[in-house]
Amino acid sequence: MKNKIFKNMEWWIFISAILLCIVGFVALYSATQSDNFEDLKKQIIWFSVSIVIMIIVVFVDYQVWVKLSPIFYGISILLLIAVLFTKAINGASSWFNIGVFSLQPAEFAKISVVLFLAATIVKIQEKGKSEINIFWKLGIILAVVAVPVLLILLQPDYGTAAAYLVALVLMLFVSGIDKKYIISAFVIVLVSLPLLYFFVLPEHAKERIDVFLNPESDPRGSGYNVIQSKIAIGAGELTGMGILNGNQTQLGYLSPKTTDFIYSVIGEEMGFVISAGVVLVYVTLITKALYVAKTAKDDVGSYIAAGISGIFLFHMAENIGMTLGLLPITGVPLLFISYGGSSMITSFIGIGLLLNISGNRKKTIFVK
After folding, report:
1. Taking the C-alpha atoms of 140, 75, 309 and 28 in order, what is their torsion angle to the nearest 10 degrees?
2. Which of 65, 134, 249, 323 has its CA 20 to 30 A from that of 301?
3. Can you give the pTM of this predicted structure?
4. Are 347 and 226 in contact (CB under 8 A)?
5. C-alpha separations of 178 from 119, 183, 185 in Å
6. Of all residues in the chain, what percent carry a pLDDT higher than 90?
7. DSSP code of 131?
8. Coil, strand, or helix at residue 227?
9. Cα–Cα dist 111/104, whole Å
């Protein structure tokens, strides 16, 4: 039985994650040489811990994790409330400081929300898949995501909150939601954007949008980071300036170069070949994750895989997009590559669930 599970697993998902981590280690090696490689050492520790946790997730049937999801969800909500009372770091109350390490509950909550949301959708669809299109039942599903998203917005952390929404959209799409809801939501978003900009968003969020539209308007202030990022990536050309040789990286023009702008380090020192390769590996990872959603043996497995795919997709597109000046800067990490223990552990829990679901699959249940 175990041999069959191993045979069915989408191993390219795991291989892709490891390849991304390797690129991340090399980039962190270059970016942290000035501080005795402290962040790189911590990242290796987090990577080791993540692999152990991933193995545990793989070998416990995902149905067990689904049954425990209400507990995980409840704990996540409590942590998201508690973190609001911590001391703000860089303007956001998002971390618990534990000695030399810090933990971000919004990262860990991603998995618990996806698991509980999948369980909720399946429960609602017990009498038929069309049950999801009953307005008040759809409202329950939206409420499951709305609670953590609102708490994360209070931190404030708009980028992480957006990751939850992308996961929600993919999960609803896979579950067979009526297209009228998708179209209506799209129209509401379009109408709401200007209202949010003028009447809801705080000044620093408006500033980020303004800088995104015209970074040269404040080249030494809010536009500085994205301008330096584009200079770094452009300077890398085809093959890069070489590890430890990037001007923007080594002279301190990129900040923060171990997290938000790690892709800029890759572009400058490893060039277009490796930075484009990173995108291709991500595309492979996300495509394989969506294939797991398509071929899962049951609905709950399909929904979980879709949600995890959405999280990976958002982080890749947003982080790389902001370093290239194509999207507003939100501070979301490039998963598996950026420094961060919370994101590393959460990402490998997602990988473990995808391997678990793919190893137990039997037939295609993707909603048409």
Report:
1. 150
2. 134
3. 0.92
4. no
5. 19, 9, 11
6. 65
7. G
8. helix
9. 13
Backbone angles phi and psi of 97, in degrees to 5: -90, 120
- Two tokens, residue 221: 């202030």
> Residues, the chain, total?
368
Contacts of 88 by beta carbon, 8 Å cutoff, 6+ apart = none
- Amino acid code (one letter) for 123: K
Is 148 exposed, middle or buried (CB count within 10 Å of its CB: 0-12, 13-18, 19+)?
buried
In the three-class reduction of DSSP (H, G, I as helix; E, B as strand; rest coil), residue 259 is classed as: coil
pLDDT, tens digit (0-9, with 9 covering 90-100), for 159-209: 999 999 999 999 999 998 887 887 887 888 788 777 777 766 777 677 777
How close are the terminal C-alpha atoms of the chain, in Å?
A: 31
98: three-class secondary structure by DSSP: strand
What does the alpha-carbon distance between residue 41 and residue 53 come to, in Å, rounded to a whole number? Answer: 19
**Residue 355, exposed/middle/buried by CB under 10 A (0-12, 13-18, 19+)?**
buried
